[in-house]
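#struct-pred
JK: can someone run the complex with zinc ion? inputs below
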Amino acid sequence: MFIEPSRKKEILHPRTGWIEVICGSMFSGKTEELIRRLNRAKIARLKVEIFKPALDKRYHEVDIVSHNETSIRSTPVQTASEILLLTGNCDVVGLDEAQFFDNSIVDICTNLADNGKRVIIAGLDMDFQGRPFGCMPNLMAIAEYVTKVHAICVLCGDVASHSYRLSPSQQQVLLGETDHYEARCRRCFNLGEKAKLI
Ligand code: ZN
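RT: done, structure tokens with the ligand placed:
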């Protein structure tokens, strides 16, 4: 059987995959960083596929849109398992708003990386109460690279890592970032939480 030289090289030395996580609070530039990495992979002529949970419908059905309006085409999926079916021959898999996937996303990402794909995940590391958000701690544990990006506290100008919820709702998932949340440092976050109790 004839195997073309480039393919032969791939069979003898299969490319290794890995997992990258970009995490942080709201307004920290997670999605911008995801888009930057994916665009660079495209320049390198790698085949890129991007997914996000279907529940995130804030701006547009198909595009990932970050707050500074740079965007990139993505496919909304209802469940994590759909991702395996849709990533057959791609080199790089991007996931945005990963905190909204259930824990099965951990095995899916492991499977993708084991099969030679670069997986780049962006998501909120903490919810509005400062608790680890859903599947994100597990994704950070299995990743080769974790990057935590930060916002700026709107009250004092320090580095912010908390998403402070302005409205009284106690639901963990509340969409519509600019209306309901602001970035705060630990101190201003805690002061705000105390004031809510009064
Ligand atoms: Zn502050």
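RT: quick notes.
The pocket of zinc ion is lined by residues 153, 155-156, 158, 184-185, 187-188 (CB under 6 Å).
The mean pLDDT is 88.
JK: thanks, will look after standup
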